[in-house]
Each structure stands twice: as C-alpha cells, then as structure tokens.
Design a protein that fits this description.
The chain is of the alpha+beta class and 584 residues long. The protein is built from five helices and 32 strands.
Length: 584
C-alpha cells in the first residue's frame, strides 16, 4: 500500500504560499479597517439625520417668507451629503467583495503554506514533538478563525452601513434613475409647497379630473371633428406600449403609462405638439416581484391612471411599484408597496391632494388606504380596510370639509384626508366593485352590476343617510357622474341611464351603439361619453334625453376616460393618443 504524503516538502511552493498569505492578510486587514471606518463615517454623514441640515431646515421653516440664499445653501449641503453618502455606499459594496476575495486567498494560501512547510517535527525523534505539533495545529486554527471573524465583522459593517438610510426613510428608497444609476431623492430638504384646490381645478390631474369625480372646470369642448379629413384634429401620435390608464395633464405636459410582462414605462408628451418629451422605464425597487404578475387580459399591467401634482407626476403599476418624476424626467422617489393579493393586480388609480398621494389598496388580505407624502414617498398614514375592490378614490369637497370617499366590495366609506380617520361607513354594495363613487351637491352616488345603485346624503362630517336605492340597469366598469340635480351612468352593453338625484327616479334611458368602460365627464351642460368602439356620444345634461352628437374616432378601440382642458379633448385609444381642439 502506498504511503500518503500529506506533508510533502516543497521549498518553492512554501515561499510562494507564505508571500501570498502575508500579502492577502495585510490586504484583508486594511479592507476590514476601511469598512469599519466607512460605517462610522456614514453615521456622521447621514443625509436624513445630519445635524447641520436639520438645524438649517428648522431655521428655514421658521422664516416668515422664503429665503432663496438659505434654501440654496441647504440644497448645496444636501447634495454634497448625498454624494458623499452614495460614494461611500459604492465603496462598501466594492470593499465587501474585496474583503471576501482577500480572506479567501489568505485561507487558501495559509493552508498551502503549512502544507509545504519544511522541517516539520519528527514525532519519533523529538521528545516534545507532540506538544509542538499540537501548538502548531492550535495556531493554525486560531489564524483560520481569526480570518473568518475578520470577514464576518467586515461584512456586518458593510450590511449595517448599506441598510442605514433605508431604515430612516420608511422604505422610500429609490432605485434606477433616468441614467440607470442608483439615486435617492426620498427626503426633500426644503419644505415643498403643493398646489391648493383652486389651482388643481384648473388642470386635469387625475382619473376623471379634479377630485376624480368627472366634472371639468372648463365649460367648452369640441362637439365635432373628422378623423379622416383632419378637421379639429390638432395631433395624433402612436403610443409605445399598451395600457388602459387615462391621460392626466398639468400645464403643457400630458402623462400616461404603458407596460407588458417585462417593462413598465411612463410617457411625457407636449400638449401643444404631441411630441414625446421623454420616456422612463422603471427598474426594480426593493421588494419588486422578480416575476411578472398574472393579470387579467383586459386589465393589463398599466391600468391605474397616474396623478400629477404641481411639478411632479406619480405612476403606479399592477405589481404595486410606484414612482414619482419631475417634469424633466428625473426620478424623485420610488418604492414597492408590497405584492398585491389581487387576482387582477393593482388597478386603482392614484389621487393627489394637498401634498399627499392617496392609494386604495383593496385586496384579499391586509387591505388598506394609504397616504404617501408627495415630496418624499414616505408613508403619512395607512388605515386598514377589510375588503377587495377595483374602484378608485375621490375627494369630495363637502360643506363639512373635504372627504376621501372609497367604494369597495360591500361598503362605501369616507376618511379624513389629513389623518386617515374613518368618518362614516355604509354597507350597500356587492360583487366585484369597479365603478368609483360620484359626488355632487352633498350627495354621494355608488352603483355596481349585480348589486344596487344608492343615493347617499352627507348629513354631517361623520354621518350619512341612505336616501334611495335603484336596482334596474347598473354599470360594470364605467364610473357614474353627478351634475347637482341628476346622476348618470353607462353600462357595458351600451345603455346610458339618468336618475333624479333627490328621489332615485329613472328620468330617462338612452340605448347607444356600443358598451362603455370609459366614464362619462361633465363639461358645462354637456356629458361626454366614449364607447369601446371609439364613438364619442355627447348628451345634454338635463331631465330629458337629448343627443347632441355622436362622433367616431375611426378604427379605434377605447377603454380610457378622456381628459378635458379648455376647448380641447385628449383621448387615449388602444394604439394612439389624440388631441381634438375646437369650440363647442
């Protein structure tokens, strides 16, 4: 039997291994020290808890009016702190890799050094050989464990450094800026002023316009056009990716989104020319599902309408990725709100009001309504709910103050938009609720197929009265509309129904050419309603049925609700974005 040569001597290999052991050991120790220093430094340069920045913010907030010079100093210091922070973040990632490599080389070289070491004690000839050999083995173990501890300590410093800011900003870490780099604009150092309600009404900031209940501020919109001849067609452009969300507008910028299994995109258009100003592709945030969600074919990955609030736009997708950009396409913040427990994926639209973004996260488990700070992406409040739905929230400007009103599987509920406290609740619905509530003149109207239509009078800030029910024709997807005296809604088989707001009496029924997913919008005394085959039906808002016009968009399927500005209509079809301009 051959003798096992476990300790074969090799002078050259011994020297090489010794050099590698010394060099890698010194290298690993240096990297370890730098990682620890990095951890200590970043605690001092925290862009969230920076003492100097905090003091400057407090000073700025206490000023009776804006101080441009102080604001500039705060922004410069903030930028410098952030650059230092993210430079250090990059260093720690590289350092962790280098430490792992250094310790690995050290341990391999050290093992080989002891293997090739000459002049090991001969057990038969040296009286103390056993003790010497055991001492040598113990030294080897101590060195090996020292290397493991060094590696572990360095990795822990790396881990705690990297997670430090994420803990401070309540999960609002942002990843994947316009240039593909990691960015973090989650904490707005200078307090930001967002538009008040009067300014919001001059725009088209959300699904169904200001407040999201389908009433335009402007009273003039086109009533005739010709797609083939180009009459009153200001522009028409193709949309890169499909989505069922509706256009939102602020100033001269229009925003929509599109998505497929692989990509989630936001598009910014010039309202005057139709030019695509920029496209942003969302990259994964912490918590973003690795695999695309299975969604309903008609719903898709980009069903939720965006919101725009001042100089920021906000988009959310079926996988609950939400992000905010400025009008130049710079990522301000982004986050994932958690995998939706919803067989359609998240499809409720966003709503912005008084500096907050409201999200109706109705799902099978852990349903809630959330308010997110528009400037930072941090959660302001979250109120638990216990039902699933696919409706979107509205802000009702009641005589008792603004109320955030949501419809779901069984209930209609109102919340205080400032703190999320529930104001009132009424059980009156059923089924898969997709239509959002309507509001006008102190009345809330909700309806859903296979359930009921309900007229609800708000009698106090925390009280309501169910005035009437209607259970004949009911909407499946399209949301209802109120004009102060009447409520209107459209069905998926092509019926437009008008009910008296005070009594619930059916005033008239108009059978139109095709069904509706798009929601009706009131412009002046006219109701604009776009069917699924791309025909715009324009009705008089009155107690008797009067069709003003029915105008086709050509071979265009439409699910989205149009946006209305003064003398203009912006329409998203399945393939195009169209601007129609003219007098009513």
């Amino acid at each position: 039997m051959l003798e096992k040569k476990e300790f074969e001597k090799n002078e050259f290999m011994y020297r090489v291994s010794t050099i590698l052991t010394i060099v890698s050991g010194i290298f690993s120790f240096i990297v370890f020290v730098l990682l620890v220093i990095n951890y200590l430094q970043i605690r001092q340069a925290d862009p969230v808890d920076n003492t100097m920045l905090t003091e400057m913010r407090i000073e700025y907030a206490a000023l009776p009016k804006e101080d441009a010079e102080l604001a500039k100093r705060i922004q410069d210091l903030d930028l410098l702190t952030r650059k230092a922070y993210f430079t250090t973040q990059n260093h720690l990632r590289i350092g962790a890799i280098l430490l792992l490599l250094g310790v690995s080389v050290f341990m391999i070289a050290f093992k080989n050094m002891t293997r090739w070491k000459p002049n090991l004690p001969e057990l038969a000839e040296v009286p103390t050989a056993e003790k010497e050999f055991l001492a040598l083995a113990e030294a080897r173990n101590l060195i090996s464990w020292g290397a493991v501890i060094l590696l572990g300590a360095g990795m822990m410093a790396s881990y705690f450094t990297e997670s430090h800011l994420v803990t401070k900003v309540d999960g609002a870490q942002t990843v994947g800026g316009a240039d593909g780099t990691v960015v973090d604009e989650a904490v707005d150092i200078v307090k930001k002023e967002f538009p008040k309600w009067d300014a919001v009404q001059e725009q088209w900031p959300s699904f169904r316009g200001p407040g999201a209940y389908g009433v335009a501020k402007f009273e003039s919109a086109p009533t005739s056009w010709d797609m083939e001849a180009g009459t009153n067609i200001k522009w028409k452009v193709e949309i890169p990716k499909w989505g069922t969300n509706s256009p939102v507008i602020w100033g001269n910028r229009l925003f929509i989104s599109g998505a497929d299994d692989e990509h989630r995109e936001i598009y910014c258009y010039d309202t005057e020319t139709g030019d695509l100003v920029w496209t942003r592709v969302l990259t994964p945030f912490p918590g973003t599902p690795a695999e695309p969600l299975e969604v309903n074919e008609e719903t898709g990955h980009a069903a939720s309408t965006l919101a725009v609030h001042g100089d920021q736009v906000f988009a959310i997708f079926a996988n609950a990725d939400i992000a905010s950009y400025d009008f130049d396409g710079n990522l301000i913040w982004g986050r994932n709100l958690g995998l939706p427990d919803n067989h359609y994926g998240h499809s409720s639209s966003l709503l912005a009001y008084e500096g907050n973004i409201f999200i109706q996260m109705d799902q099978n488990s852990e349903a809630k309504v959330i308010a997110i700070d528009a400037a930072t992406g941090a959660e302001v409040w979250a109120t638990p709910r216990d039902e699933i739905s696919w409706a979107s929230p509205i802000i009702a400007p009641t005589e008792f103050g603004p109320q955030l009103i949501l419809a779901s599987e069984m209930h209609v509920r109102a919340y205080d938009p400032a703190d999320g406290a529930e104001l009132w609740a009424l059980e009156c619905l059923g089924g898969e609720v997709a239509p959002s509530p309507a509001y006008s003149n102190g009345m809330v109207f909700v309806a859903n197929e296979y359930a009921m239509a309900n007229g609800i009078q708000i009698t106090a800030a925390d009280a309501v009265e169910l005035k009437w029910e209607y259970d004949d024709l009911l909407p499946e997807v399209s949301s209802p509309l109120g004009d102060g005296e009447r409520f209107y809604f459209a069905t998926s088989i092509g019926e437009l129904v008008c009910l008296d707001a005070a009594s619930g009496e059916e005033l008239w029924l108009e059978e139109l050419s095709d069904g509706f997913y798009s929601s009706p919008v009131l412009v002046g005394d006219k109701i604009y309603l776009l069917d699924m085959e791309g025909t715009m039906h324009i009705m008089r808002a009155s107690a008797t049925a009067e069709v003003i016009a029915s105008v086709s968009l050509g071979e265009e399927e439409t699910f989205a609700t149009p946006a209305f500005m003064d003398k203009r209509i912006y329409i998203r079809t399945n393939e195009h974005l169209i601007c129609i301009e003219g007098d009513s």
